[in-house]
Amino acid sequence: MADLPDFQVFMKPAGNSCNLDCTYCYYNCQPHGERSGQRVMTDEVLEALTMQNIEASGTGEIFFTWHGGEPTLAGTGFYKKAVALQKKHLPRGGVIRNGIQTNGTLLDKEWCRFLADNNFAAGISIDGCERFHDAARLNHSGRGSFAQALKGFRMLKDHGVEPEILCVVSSLNAGEPLRIYDFFRSLGAKWITFLPLVIKDERTPSAVLPPTVGAGEFGDFLCTIFDEWVANDIGSVKIQIIEEALRTAFNPEHTLCIFKRECGGVPVVERNGDFYSCDHYVNSDNRIGNIMDIPIARLLAGDRQKAFGRAKLTTLPQYCLDCEVLEMCNGECPKNRFITTPTGEPGLNYLCTGYRRFFNHVRPFVEEVRGLTDI
Fold it and tell me: Among 118, 178, 341, 361, whose CB has the most other CB atoms within 10 angstroms?
């Protein structure tokens, strides 16, 4: 499978089932058990997924990335089976890496022991301190989930798992970057990702719905955090977007799909085996097939998935191609490209103003790092 690009399948064993009802969720999550039909991925689909992911990955590191909805709803028993199947089918020379992205509210000692014992990486969604988090991350009774998420984060740390924090940046919290960053540092967070919230108004071209973050506001948020990080936290805290910007000092490909020149390497496999081009495009137009009929390697290498990935580059407006920070941004995610350029060309990213501000702000530091590597 040497001709396959780097890929990482988002595996959704409980589909879009979730115990929370976050106001901004793009995935149309449903209360667990309230949808008719299958609730958790079957053993048959799980084994096929395991074998095919290993086969497509070849030797070396093989990634299993568990998402949702809320993936812990599948239960520890599901993941014990998953780990057993990974060991059963692991080729000589292969190394399995498991990661799970969770809201953290269902984590208990059993979960934390299991994740620690099996070397799972974990990400927890926390939108800052309580008033920011609970403004949007609610359960199905309308109550905030902050206390449960924080408990889950601390329990993971107590069991030797260093969780990454994923923070959604919206109009609700974007005005307080240092308050949010200071809170995360007070938790001892070592890895932080800031995710901009963009909710397109499907009824009106180029319009967004609240609590979408303003493009310039997001840029200011990132610049403020960068300045604090560069002054005090180099080497002690890793912030994903800063790490991605710094990668351009060494001229490798970005690791994060939204900043790659082409995408298509982060598809989704749903609990019934359906394969979709991307987590943000789980719809009928981007259902490429089912792994019970067509193996993952063929789906990844197929014309439809390749065309999906190439479109990220080929649909960039000239305004982006001429941009001084193109190598850092590459137009970001296609899902956010719904405004027009100053000359009226379609396909500009809604967040362009913010990203351009941020990447230009960090360029002197990146160039300094580049100079050090050239010595």
Answer: 361
